[in-house]
Design a protein that fits this description.
Layout (H helix, E strand, L loop, with lengths): L12 H10 L3 E5 L3 H9 L4 E4 L3 H4 L11 H14 L4 E5 L9 H15 L3 E5 L5 H9 L4 E6 L5 H4 L9 H17 L3 E5 L3 H10 L4 E5 L7 E4 L1 H4 L17 H17 L14 H10 L4
Parallel strand pairs: 1-2, 1-8, 2-3, 3-4, 4-5, 5-6, 6-7, 7-8
Helix pairs in contact: 2-4, 4-5, 5-6, 6-8
Length: 290
């Protein structure tokens, strides 16, 4: 009998909470396109974040601020097509939830209705708790994002660790509680000290805590895909482990292609398509060149 691989069952909220109960870490990566989503699905990655970081990694902006809802929906749809069973999270871009609870609910709804997402994520603490509550009350699972929140990078003073002092750490603890109370089922802690992440994880009641550069004690880990494979040439954050240099592989391939075309080594017969002699002769005859 040929070996068959069963397609993975859809990753759901009960599945994620069950992993937390069993003490098994959850895997989460960013992804913005169909082929990468396909590979992440094949690799068994459980959660996928269609992050507004695509503004930098895919669209070449200097920050995430110019990203629009339409950009996000287009990429989230492609990811959903590539990863049908992953738990796909749509990241709400700048000014699509800050203005009002109603704006937040409408835009969160677009991720669900137009892109088939499983949840949304937004940045901010207690000040955004009413947005989280409104979205959750509308039946949409919501994830909070604390610590280094790229949409507020100007106010935070750059891409740096957040919550190193007791006072700032206390604010993050309070923000996490406010989000949890508002109904967030998950909170992402980005670039906070490991001990702070551990403390928040231990105090979480029915809320999944995920770490991005915040140490090993959370319920799971998130990484930015482009940082893992050397695909973002401008910057490599300390928290990113590089699992392979795909950027270098691609660059070498591109240079080889350029050289082969210039030196007439590409294409070779296996790269083109022939035509039967008689058809070609007939063609020439039709053109009056026989
Ligand atoms: O947009 C994104 O990829 C994010 C991560 C930095 C967490 O929000």
């Amino acid at each position: 009998m040929p070996e068959t691989t069963q397609p993975r069952k859809k990753i759901t909220l009960p599945y994620l909470f069950d992993k937390v109960k069993k003490g098994e870490p959850i895997t989460w990566l960013t992804c913005y396109d169909y082929p990468t989503a396909y590979l992440q699905e094949q690799a068994g990655i459980e959660m996928i974040l269609v992050g507004d970081s695509l503004g930098m990694t895919m669209l070449g902006y200097d920050s995430t601020l110019p990203v629009t809802m339409d950009d996000m929906i287009r990429h989230a749809q492609a990811v959903r097509r590539g990863a049908p069973t992953a738990f796909v999270v749509g990241d709400m871009p700048y000014m699509t939830y800050q203005p009002s609870v109603e704006t937040a609910i409408r835009n969160a709804g677009r991720f669900m209705a137009e892109a088939g997402c499983d949840a949304i994520k937004l940045e901010g603490g207690a000040a955004m708790a009413d947005r989280i509550k409104g979205i959750v009350d509308a039946g949409i699972p919501a994830i909070g994002h604390l610590g280094l929140t790229p949409q507020s990078v100007a106010a935070l003073g750059g891409f740096r660790v957040q919550g190193k002092s007791a006072a700032l750490a206390k604010k993050i603890v309070d923000d996490a509680k406010a989000l949890e109370k508002a109904g967030a089922f998950c909170i992402l802690l980005e670039m906070v000290p490991d001990r702070l992440c551990q403390l928040i994880t231990e105090r979480a009641e029915g809320c999944i805590i995920m770490s991005l550069g915040s140490g090993p004690h959370a319920h799971g880990q998130l990484l930015i895909y482009h940082d893992m494979f050397g695909l973002y040439p401008k910057f490599k954050p300390k928290m990113a482990k590089v699992y392979g240099n795909a950027g270098e592989v691609l660059l070498n391939g591109l240079k080889a292609y350029r050289d082969e075309v210039i030196n007439r080594q590409f294409p070779q017969p296996e790269n083109w398509f022939g035509m039967p002699d008689e058809e070609f002769e007939e063609l020439k005859r039709m053109l009056g060149e026989a």
